[in-house]
Design brief:
Blueprint (H helix, E strand, L loop, with lengths): L7 H4 L1 E8 L4 H4 L6 E5 L3 E6 L2 E12 L2 E12 L2 E11 L5 E7 L2 E9 L1
Length: 113
């Protein structure tokens, strides 16, 4: 089992996606509660709308702040999908970041679930 990096502990757990630039809040919770989850040394999940994906995470720094960069693979509706993104701990303990998949490119904000 891989050792969990110390920086990963700041991100560990389930985060509720409360805002995205491209989609309204009704869409976010279409199938399940919209979330971004970080587990262990490099795993996680993303789910919102009709998308469900599994993360491959790398922890590091961006602009001097702790950062989790990830690629993801899963399904959007019933179609295979993949993409990438990143997240940083922002003000007031919120998680802020960016999600990218094909033409979809959206900022997001999360709070601890």
């Amino acid at each position: 089992m891989a050792k969990v990096p110390a920086i990963a502990k700041a991100f560990a757990g389930r985060w509720r996606i409360v805002e995205m630039d491209v989609w309204d809040n009704d869409f976010l919770d279409l199938v399940e509660e919209a979330h971004l989850t970080f587990k262990g040394a490099a795993d996680g999940e993303i789910g919102f709308g009709a998308l469900k994906g599994f993360l491959d995470v790398r922890y590091g720094a961006r602009d001097g702040s702790a950062c989790a960069e990830f690629s993801w693979e899963g399904h959007d509706e019933s179609d295979p999908a993949c993409g990438r993104g990143w997240a940083m701990i922002g003000t007031a303990g919120r998680l802020v970041g960016h999600y990218i998949h094909n033409a979809d490119d959206s900022g997001f904000v999360c709070v601890r679930a």
